[in-house]
């Protein structure tokens, strides 16, 4: 009997704590906060300086202007863009010309064709810029030495790996936009890129 009374008492205390905890909470759309953390005025109403419906203790923008109402659950308003900014938006627009835009070159260790992480980073930046210029073709140039005939095959393999990387995955450059060539002379360890 004593054990049963103990469990009943334990259950009763747990319920009372849950009720007390629920009474201490107040809800704001999408959020819950304890009453003790929100300062109140002399009438017991939570302070809301800007009158946006979000208490100051939760408001990330305590003085939201009226023209920016309604606000989100954090009290941040949605202000209209000023006319002066809309007029000057074209100044901030970045556009690239296809006329011989040169990209950084990539280098390979002697006789290697694998794309190492630093090469992939460069290729990702090239792909990003090419995606902003959808009408521009990409020229990829490799080099070989007649004195070392195997360097032509190595350059061809490097270019093939680069094209495969640029046309697959998240890069997604259309293969028809890529033109490649291999030239005698030049740095046999380097691959150059430019738009035509």
Describe the fold and architecture.
By secondary structure, this protein is α+β, with helices and mostly antiparallel strands. The protein folds into two domains: 30-93, no CATH class; 106-195, OmpA-like domain (60s Ribosomal Protein L30, Chain: A, 2-Layer Sandwich), CATH 3.30.1330. The chain is built from four helices and six strands; from the N terminus they run αββαβαβαββ. It has a four-stranded mixed β-sheet with strand order 3-6-4-5. A two-stranded antiparallel ribbon has the order 1-2. It is elongated and about 90 Å long.
Question: Summarize this, please?
Answer:
This protein has 196 residues and is an alpha+beta fold.
SSE layout:
Elements: H1 2-24, E1 25-28, E2 31-34, H2 83-87, E3 106-107, H3 117-132, E4 138-144, H4 150-167, E5 178-184, E6 190-195
Parallel strand pairs: 4-5
Antiparallel strand pairs: 1-2, 3-6, 4-6
